[in-house]
Amino acid sequence: MITEQKNKMANSPINKLFWEMGLPMIISMVLQALYNVVDSIFVTNMGEQGIIANQALTLAFPIQILIIAVGVGTGVGLNALLSKSLGEKNYDKVNRVAGNGIFLSICIYLVFLIFGIFGARWFISAFAGKNEEVINLGTIYLKICTCFSLGAIGFTVYERFLQSTGKTMLSTISQISGAVTNIVLDYIFIYPCKMGVAGAAWATVVGQFVSLGMAMIFHYLLNKEINGNIKFIKPNFELIKAIYNIGISAAIMQALLSVMMAGMNAILGNANTEPSILVGAFGIYYKIQQIALFSAFGLSNTIISILSFNYGMKNKDRINTAIKCGIVDVLIVTFILSLIFEIFANPISSLFGLTGGTTREIIDICTIALRIASIGYIFMGFSIAIQGILQSIGYAIRPLIISLLRLVIFVFPVAYVFTLLNDVNYLIWWTFPIAEIITAIISVFILKKSYKEKIEIIENKKYNIV
């Protein structure tokens, strides 16, 4: 099975490979984004409390992003080590790596459990000012999501077990099962049961546990390549170090999304306008935007898989083709999503205000945000594709620099300046395309320099792999 995968990676048409491997990754990543989108749709339609409840969820969102970031970073390292060990037929190492993955998921969960118990209220209060209602609702939501985050964290580990052995469709089925559960329970808990934001939080964590449960069933019943014996759940610090040597870069890049979200919440909360409206609109916009962002990440992960294999083979023709196809395919996806958001900005935003009334102003601002900010999606996709290329050829710091540029360095100063101007509800959204365009330009120079250093010097070798 592993040999077939290697033959395919070495000989199949590159563009076909990208869509064959990339679509399941895109679906999986987008489904992660939909958890928070669905929560916000139901919460903002709670009537008079909708605006305040949405602001509370927005303030909690950076920690949810951080949970995903740590899980993704750990998963990337696990996937790489598992795939390598499976290719080497070192099944003892495969089992120990998998066991350490489970051990790490438990440790990560305990950290977020402690944070949920002791730090949830402090975190929300830091961004909510003196609005006690926002603080109380945000604390309830965040405490549930962190104290019961084992489902989300555990799923990222078991998902990688399935992906490393080629069972990507099973991991996608697990994601879909959890997402559907979340949607159904959101409605039941928030409306008939009248549980409010607590209902949204419980729907999220139950959906995550459903995904974890499905992935565990698939893994233990069908993943014969990995031994699931409990004796392998024993910490080995050399293996843990190896996992994070690979995964730390991905974790930090994802965590910067949390930094950006928290920073923007702070900046918008002090803008010369009603904070619940602007912060709420930003929260809705950013959750919708994650569909485009996570699609780009899915294809970026595909670039890493395909390009790193052919870079290891020193096959310069396929390296160049992989770079071109990777960039073009990411641009195609982000361009299509940009068009969709431009054309359907109002209907998409209106999903968050089906009950009308107090949410109308948020919907209007969110529509403006989607139409302006989606101009930058194609540039965002370009930068993220370059990050994948740089990771594939052995760079760790340069992809992080690109993330810092597009998420922090060019965002916070521009956003702050716009909050000082009169028409902040309109101008603030230009922050994102400005940051993406400048970052994309700089990324071109980083890619050219990196190409000369790592790829241009390669003597082309072509292999006939049996």
Could you outline the blueprint of secondary structure elements for this entry?
Layout: H1 2-11, H2 14-44, H3 50-87, H4 91-118, H5 120-128, H6 132-147, H7 150-164, H8 168-190, H9 196-222, H10 237-269, H11 275-313, H12 316-343, H13 345-350, H14 360-373, H15 377-392, H16 397-409, H17 412-419, H18 424-427, H19 431-454
Key structural traits:
466 residues; mainly alpha; disordered N terminus
Q: In words, what does this structure look like?
A:
- The chain has helices spanning 2-11, 14-44, 50-87, 91-118, 120-128, 132-147, 150-164, 168-190, 196-222, 237-269, 275-313, 316-343, 345-350, 360-373, 377-392, 397-409, 412-419, 424-427, 431-454.
- Helix 3 (50-87) runs parallel beside helix 6, helix 11 (275-313) packs parallel to helix 14 (360-373) and helix 16 packs antiparallel against helix 19.
- With 466 residues, the chain is mainly α.
- 82% of the residues lie in helices and 0% in strands.
- It is globular.
- The protein has one domain (2-454).
Shape: globular
Low-confidence stretches: 1-7
Structural class: mainly alpha
Order of helices and strands: HHHHHHHHHHHHHHHHHHH
Strand content: under 5%
Task: Count helical runs.
Answer: 19
Number of strands: 0
End-to-end C-alpha gap: 13 Å
Quickly count the domains: 1
Helix content: over 70%
Main sheet attributes: strand count, strand direction, barrel closure:
none
